[in-house]
Amino acid sequence: MEIIGIISLPNWLVGILASVLAICVYTWYKQSLFRRLGIPTKKTVFLLGDFVDMLKEGFSYISMDLYKKHGKVFGLYTGNKPTMVISDPDIIKHIMVKDFEHFTDRPQFIMLSKFWRSAMSFASGDAWRNIRHTLSPSFTSGKMRNMTPYLHRCLDIFHGLLEKNIEEHPQGFDIDPMVRCYTMDVICATSFGLEVSAQTDLENPFIKHSKEFLDINPSGNPLFIIQILFPELANAFPKLFESNLVAKHAIDFFKNASISLFEDRKKSDANYKDLLQLMVNANKQAENEETSGGKRKGLTDDEILTNSVTFMVGAYDTTAATIVWILYEMALHQDLQQKLVDEIEEQIGEKELSYDNVFTMRYVDMVMSETLRMHPPNTRLGRQPDCDIEICGVKIPKGMDCTISTDIVHFLEEYWEDPYTFNPERFSPENKSKINEYAYLPVRGGAAELCGYASSPA
């Protein structure tokens, strides 16, 4: 091929040059989106965006740095993919409540396998609404109250092991493994009626596989990185990029455990009072209920299986981490620890701990709430609009990944006085009503609030 009658180039080279030029123009256009919208952002690396900085410094560090420079709304690029980071409670209120009908979808950074697409954590639109609508009744106060006997058995074991460790290690010991084993016992017992004995078995397979399950390292998987940086490729070749997120053998372990339990429950007439049975019952009942759109779908077998696995591992990690943070803060602030102990002794004394008397302990609630503020289980809450929308003067295009950064929101000085100080008094009865509920999002909020949160003390 001749160019201007002077230079002759082979067609294959022309094709390559044209492709490179097209990629450059496309990348420039994609990475100029926030500039066109008037949203501040940092200087990005061509093709990679802010991805390298995110791997090196972490999303939270970069977000806090940009918040200090640009305020409560700014943009980041993962490759060509733009993400709008939001920490303005007024905008958050629209996303979570006022305009939530347009924000039911979640950003998908990777091409998920069919197994994961059935999980409430990843489902979008009508699928998410249906799963949540069916699961929510499983977390009423009455049904959670029925789980108390399972909790007592696990707590008795934990108490015995705790006393043993204190006696054997008077100078101190690492309580994190103990808490994680206790939490696994509680989750499996209360949710699935399953006694895994994680606290008394140091080589317990549930603990081993849960660690592998939670070990997500995108930098070690080339296909993972490619689809994060170039989502268009994943959309063009979904089967090639389909991901299970974690090690297959870890998923298979929890899938097989859940399948075995699920099959037994379908055949059993026993009156179980755990989460799995509540999901199975909800599925049967939902099939016969009418909604405005006709028969409600209920939960399919695959949806029950997937949500069993995600709840088993997800609840284990977030619950254990929160308990450890509470213990950490109490160790640092022993004056507050004594107030906590005094209240427990006054309210409970020799009585058996129950779902109801937990709610009588105000200071326990205050400590839990402040711990969740300073150490939220989820530091990012993602939503995606199904249409172009403008909120509080900010234009958000259809399909834009919107990330609510709780580790910024929870430390905004205009809402939290001296935010880096652990102070449970923020959540005292006289102060709690003054808190902007959209500046406190430990477990999501609004219509997307975590199932069961309304029935919990915090």
Automatic annotation (TrEMBL):
Essential cofactor(s): heme
Coiled coil: none
Pfam family for this entry, one: p450
Membrane spanning stretches: 12-29
Keyword line: Heme, Iron, Membrane, Metal-binding, Monooxygenase, Oxidoreductase, Transmembrane, Transmembrane helix
Keyword presence, Aminoacyl-tRNA synthetase: no
InterPro entries in UniProt: Cyt_P450 (IPR001128), Cyt_P450_E_grp-I (IPR002401), Cyt_P450_sf (IPR036396), Cytochrome_P450_3A (IPR050705)
Listed GO MF terms: heme binding; iron ion binding; oxidoreductase activity, acting on paired donors, with incorporation or reduction of molecular oxygen; steroid hydroxylase activity
Keyword Zinc-finger: no
The family this protein is said to belong to: Belongs to the cytochrome P450 family.
PANTHER family found in the cross-reference section: CYTOCHROME P450 FAMILY 3, FATTY-ACID PEROXYGENASE
UniProt name for this protein: Cytochrome P450
Organism of provenance: Dreissena polymorpha (Zebra mussel)
